Amino acid sequence: METNPDVVIIGGGLAGLAAAIHLSRTHLKVTLIEKLAYPRHKVCGEYISNEILPYLQWLDADVSALSPTNISKFAFTTSNGKAATAKLPLGGFGISRYALDDFLYQKAIANHCTIIKETVTDVSFHNDLFTVTSSNQVLKTKIVLGAFGKRSNVDQVLDRNFIHKKSPWLAVKAHYSGNLDADLVALHNFNGGYCGVSKVENNIINICYLADYATFKEYKNIEDYQQNVLYKNKHLKAVFENSQLLFDKPLTISQISFDKKKAVENHILMIGDTAGLIHPLCGNGMAMAIHSAKIASELILAYYSDKKISREALEKNYTKEWKKYFGKRLFMGRILARILTQKTITNTLVAIVASFPGILPGIIKQTHGKPIAID
Fold it and tell me: 308-327 pLDDT, tens per residue?
């Protein structure tokens, strides 16, 4: 079967779904290909800065219907128990990917997007036209958005540079029940990684951590690793010991690469983690992914409405806008990651921040954006 939509989106995470909703508000025919069904849990910190709220409201995707938690405070702790706290400059909210992705999926369906549950097996570009092939579909289109996440078979099809390198990072995530301040998002440092803890809807605690695989593989299972490594941080130990696991077992993903990626490859506009993995230390990956969908969608709409805009101009403009909004934040995330994997430096930094509380909000502002402007 062959169809010819105006835009094909490969991947149905936050970035892909937001772009589908945005583009389908016009008369463009949008097809999104996603290999997995909704709803589903995903490895994610599940905290979003309020900077994204104006755009979600413009998309007619009012997340207040999902009863997210309102988050206004941030805490950071070191493995030796030192802690620093601050008020979040913009505030944010906690919402599970299980609820949010499905919510956006339903919005995309209501906007008459075509959503195909298949795996993309090939993407080629010839004579100013893409051919996107999946198990039962062949789609011809002028524009392709890459929204296939952190690591995908499509990265291999495109032979992207980072896919050939081994990464030392893996991530573990699960939901828990227990007592935790609903207005707090915390980042707990431990030997070989760091762990984010906050509440999402229905009073559920989300715990998601990034771990160095070399340290992780020394233990037989996740529980042993947590007890022997994460529990060295007394604050993190208290969270785990006062919480009950709600999943059958934690979710894991490996080979997480923070290498730089190109915003455009093989003429595909990459959005969300596909364009550059949003470092957890930016604390704001979900908002940045959704924002990237807005940037790409607006440029695509301009491309279709103005025949004078060439494909080359479209690609250059998107790369420029990506760097403008996210380059500094990703850079700061990488710098913070290097700092926080050095125990002595981390302890010193937190001691300074604890003594001078005004420093931490300034650091947070470097990794967060301003409320998204809606024209």
Answer: 999 999 999 999 999 999 88
Whether the Cβ atoms of residue 247 and residue 42 lie closer than 8 Å to each other = no
Beta-bridged to residue 133, according to DSSP, are: 122, 138
Secondary structure of the chain: what % helix, strand, coil (to 5)?
A: 40, 30, 30
- Over residues 97-112, the mean pLDDT reads 97
Q: Are 141 and 123 in contact (CB under 8 A)?
A: no
Residue 57 to residue 146: CA distance in whole angstroms: 24
* Apex 202 CA angle, 196 and 207, nearest 5: 15
Q: Above 60 in pLDDT, residue 86?
A: yes
Alpha carbons 373 and 55: distance in angstroms, whole number: 8
Tell whether omega for the bond before 250 is within 30 degrees of 0, i.e. cis. Answer: no
For residue 270, how far is the Cα from the chain centroid?
13
Strand partners for 199: 205
Structure tokens at 373: 């402007």
Residue 176 has pLDDT above 70, yes or no: yes
Residue type, 301: L
What is the token pair recorded at 251? Answer: 């979710």
Give the model confidence (pLDDT) of 327-359 as tens digits: 887 777 777 666 666 666 666 666 666 555 666
State pTM to two decimals: 0.92
What sign does the CA torsion over 337, 341, 345, 347 have? positive
Q: Was domain 2-165+257-367 assigned CATH 3.30.70.1560?
A: no
Contact of 187 with 84, CB cutoff 8 Å = no
Q: Please state, in angstroms and rounded to a whole number, the distance separating the CA atoms of residues 188 and 77.
A: 5
Mean pLDDT in residue range 258-266: 86
Give how far the C-alpha of residue 148 lies from the chain's centroid of Cα atoms, to the nearest Å. 11
CA 195 from centre of chain = 15
pLDDT of the residue at 360: 64
Question: pLDDT tens digit string along 279-290?
Answer: 665 568 899 999
Listed residue (291, 295, 292, 301) closest to 317, CA to CA = 295
Residue 68: both structure tokens together: 């997210």
Rounded distance between C-alpha atoms, residue 15 and residue 245, angstroms: 29
Residue type, 353: V
Q: How far is CA 282 from the centre of its chain?
A: 10
Q: Three-state SS for 281?
A: helix
DSSP 3-state of 62? coil
